[in-house]
Amino acid sequence: MKRDKSFVDHIRVHCRAGNGGHGVVSFRKEKFVPRGGPDGGDGGDGGKVVLIVDENTDNLRSFHYDPKLLAEDGAHGQSWKRHGKNGKTKIGRVPPGTVIYKSPATDVTEAVAMERSDEGVELEPVIDLTEPGQEYVLLEPGRGGRGNFHFRSATNQVPQERELGTEGSEGIFYFELRRIADIGLVGFPNAGKSTLLGKISAKQPKVASYPFTTLTPQVGVVSLDGGSSRCTVADIPGLIEGAHDNRGLGHEFLRHITRCRVLLFVVDIAGSEMRDPIEDIQTLRKEIKLYDEDLAKFPWMVVANKMDLEGADENLAIFQNRFPKVPIIPISAMEGDGIDDLKVEMSKILSDGE
Ligand SMILES: Nc1nc2c(ncn2[C@@H]2O[C@H](COP(=O)(O)OP(=O)(O)O)[C@@H](O)[C@H]2O)c(=O)[nH]1
Ligand SMILES: [Mg+2]
Q1: CA neighbours within 13 Å on the CB side: how many for 246?
Q2: Does the predicted model carry a pTM greater than 0.85?
Q3: All domains of the chain, ordered by start, with CATH?
Q4: How far apart are the first and last CA of the chain?
Q5: Which of 195, 235, 264, 335 has most ligand 1 atoms within 8 Å of its beta carbon, as the pocket-test mutant?
Q6: In the predicted model, is pLDDT for residue 61 greater than 90?
């Protein structure tokens, strides 16, 4: 099982619905009436645990600091037939594309022990939450018990019976963000992302049906290590300068790339009158960092595309001089040059992250 990273994409959450309050035994106390009739009220119902799909969140970070969803218990009934207060519902907000699994563990300690064992944990899928606004009752609460008022009868004016509230359900769950692909291609229009994806994919890349999207990522399957392993690569169109400010489809784009493990920045290294490749790489990095510091910590590398064009060699040398630590792989997607080396690097960076 993957462990927590700075960008929370997988987390254990302890969830408990509220217990029902107890009904009570009570009798009216009035002047001159030594023993009044039964007036014990009912317990309140416990609170539910509800998950709401919120398109304004794109990760599970809020659970990182408080990995619990504990609803309130219902209050016990009182005399004067007073009903105990119902427990408040506990709401958890998750991004679209969150899959919920249930652990066989009954408490957190047991869950942690299972995670640490080498055997792995058998998780049961509960629900795939996709639609913005969707609400899902994860755990049903306990019901309040009835007070002794309900147990009066012609033959029994002094009922001593009452019901106890029932227990709310409880469990250890795993919330996991659904991924689009292992690797996301990031680059300005015309950098050569589509050409590259077509070149490295085993088959024609498919349009990914990803629920909350107005963008249409293309996802290709790439075989690595001479066919012994594979990974998925997504070409997500739509990045423009100012994306972090939500210009164009900025946030939509950036939200998508958070659903990849590794980012591959594709740049037209030959450049043009319109674009300076070195500036482009810096701009891309900056957009990502401004959107989310944690996204900037994803493993990444640069693909210098269009090495077949004039000026490419010079620009590559300039870039390597200025940023000697940034891994940059020269290729020509069109001519197929450098693709094998690129695949080797892709394989390395993916296994580093595991
Ligand atoms: N000379 C050259 N042209 C390329 C190369 N890769 C892509 N192109 C061209 O650049 C243009 C934009 O490519 P495309 O893959 O659509 O870019 P995208 O917008 O990033 O998906 C197209 O005309 C491609 O044929 C390359 O390695 N060399
Ligand atoms: Mg394209």
Answers
A1: 2
A2: no
A3: 10-177 (2.70.210.12), 181-352 (3.40.50.300)
A4: 10
A5: 195
A6: no
